[in-house]
Every structure is written in C-alpha cells, then in structure tokens.
From TrEMBL:
PANTHER family: DIGUANYLATE CYCLASE DGCM-RELATED, REGULATORY COMPONENTS OF SENSORY TRANSDUCTION SYSTEM. One of its GO terms (molecular function) is diguanylate cyclase activity. Residues 7-122 form the Response regulatory domain. The modification 4-aspartylphosphate is found at D55. CDD domains: GGDEF (cd01949). SUPFAM superfamilies: CheY-like (SSF52172), Nucleotide cyclase (SSF55073). GO terms for biological process: cell adhesion involved in single-species biofilm formation; negative regulation of bacterial-type flagellum-dependent cell motility; phosphorelay signal transduction system. This is Diguanylate cyclase (GGDEF) domain-containing protein. It comes from the Bacteria. Pfam families: GGDEF, Response_reg. The keyword DNA repair does not apply. Residues 165-302 form the GGDEF domain.
Amino acid sequence: MDLEKQTILIVDDVYFNAKIIEDILCEDYEVVTARSGKECLEYVKSTKIDLIILDVVMPDMDGYEVCRKLKANPATKKIPVIFLSGRGESQNETKGLELGAVDYIIRPIHPLVIKARIKNHLALKNQRDILEKFSFRDALTGIFNRRYLDEALKKEWHGSLRKGEVLSALLIDIDYFKKYNDFYGHVAGDQCLCMVAEALQKSSLRAGDVVARYGGEEFMVILPATPQQGAVCIAQRIQNNIAALKIENEKSPVDTYITVSTGIASTIPMITGGQKELVEMADLALYKVKNNGRNAYQVFLDTDFKKSRSLRPRT
C-alpha cells in the first residue's frame, strides 16, 4: 500500500457500480470498498479513511442511516461523506447535506467531475486537519496543550474503563521556576520550558502516551495501560533526563541545576468516578513532593485522599 495516498472508502451493494468508481480513482488514491452500511461502520473502526463515497439506496441500512451513525460517532464524524445516487430530487439532496454530507452526486458519473470534487473536498479536509493539529499544540513548546490534554484524558479514561486496564498519570512541576525566570529572564525561561518539554517527550516512548503542557511550568504525561511500577519507571527516566540537561539554576534551594517534582497516580477507572479524580490524585502526590523538599517523585496513596478531597494550593 502506498502510504502517501489518501484512502477513499466506496460503499455500494452493487459490485459493478463500486467498480466503476474504483477504476476512476485508483490511480490517484488508495481505494477500498464495502458492500453494506454495516460493513462500512465496521471498516472505519480499524482503518483510517480520508473520504467516504456512500450509495443512498442499499438494503438493510440505507446511506442516510449510515451517514447519521458516522456523524454521531466522535471517531468518524469528521470523515467527509459524499452521497452517490440515481435520485436527483432536490429533497433527497437536501436531506443528505443536512445529515452532514459534503456533497451529493447524481448518476450517471462523469469521471472528471467526480475527480475534481473529491480533490477539492480532500484539500479542504487537509486544511482542517492542519488547523486542528495546531490548535492542539502549545505555541511555545510545540507539545500538546491543555485543550488536547483534557480531550485525551477523557478518551483514555473511557477506554481504560471499557478494557478494565490501569491508567496512570504524571503531574510534573519545574522546581522554583519563578526564581529562575526572575533571575535569568523570560527568554531563558522560555528556552528552559522548551528543553524540559523535549526531555519529557524523550522519556515517554510509546505511541499511545500523551505529553502535554498543563499550564505555566507544569506538565502532564498520560500513560494508558500502565501500572504504577511502569509509571514510576517513567518518572525516574524523567528525573534523569532533566538532570542530564544541566540547565543552571543558581537560585534553586535544592540544586544548582533545574529539577522537577512529579506526582504519580494510577487507577483502574470505575463507572462512579471520572478523569478529574486521576488528576486530583496526581496533584495531591505532587503537593506532597513539594512539601517534602522537591526534586523527587511521589506515588499517590489512598491515605492522601482522606486528608483532602480538594486540589491543594500551588506554591
């Protein structure tokens, strides 16, 4: 498979109809087919699809219902859908567009026209994807921002709940960063944040892990399917990688170089809880580290919750 080609899914119960479109598009795109609405919905669960060409009239589940289900699913709602039909009545076209389709093409198909329309819709999708990508990135460090973090944490919480897996989180704070900023200046402070962010990314090796800027000089790492001991290993790696940067911090009471404090929380999500609980656990562990002298990591303990059910003040 050519990884540079975008993937188009043709959904049509009539083989001949699907083959005509496939032959028109196969030179420019990776083309796959589904013979029913159900097959389409199953296919998009496991394969990245850039655009769907969807027949309106199909047995069991028509194209309108398939589109409705695609748009109701957060994982597939952004895939552009083009309806293909022999019905040219305006009410049918209106219905398709109201359901969220980007276009409605009437048979018979004109190869140059359908190619041009698909090219335009994919170009628009690429532009949206680029804008969305940058909207989820922290402008200074280039890692994920708080907006993305909140969405990712929610997604991983529900995923871990469904699978019954452990979800871990690290809340990381640069020790005495205000003193560093005041002494070395904001330009140096920005450079320090970028170097720490890069070190955090290098400390987290799996594709599913999320490294994000939580706010100010705080960062968070989300570790799906990672038990407590695995989270501790990541925290230790972070401590070592930050130390290896050797960023001088003359005003730090704990070291001559920049250091970090890390709160570690691990839990198997429950229906009665929520992702905010995991953040609170990591926050309480971080508070404990900072109270005990900083430049270390601390695992959240259940006894910490008995002392406080609310977020600790920052120091």
